[in-house]
Write a structure and sequence with these properties.
Elements: H1 17-22, H2 24-33, H3 47-58
């Protein structure tokens, strides 16, 4: 909801496989390392979901 076609926080869209792969390092940093995203945990992301993103990034961040 924060990075789609209606709203692009920090001018970043994450509503396609291509843009998710392009921003993989930023996603990893914001979600796993600094834990700043989602802002105020608006989506209710769990620690298991954060670890899933970590594993995805460490495995090469491919969405295919």
């Amino acid at each position: 909801m924060c990075h789609g076609d209606q709203v692009q926080m920090k001018n970043i869209r994450l509503d396609s496989e291509q843009t998710i792969e392009q921003h993989a390092q930023q996603i990893y940093q914001q979600v796993v390392v600094t834990r700043q995203m989602p802002m105020n945990n608006a989506t209710g992301i769990t620690e298991d979901e954060r670890q899933l993103i970590k594993r995805w990034y460490e495995a090469g961040a491919s969405v295919q």
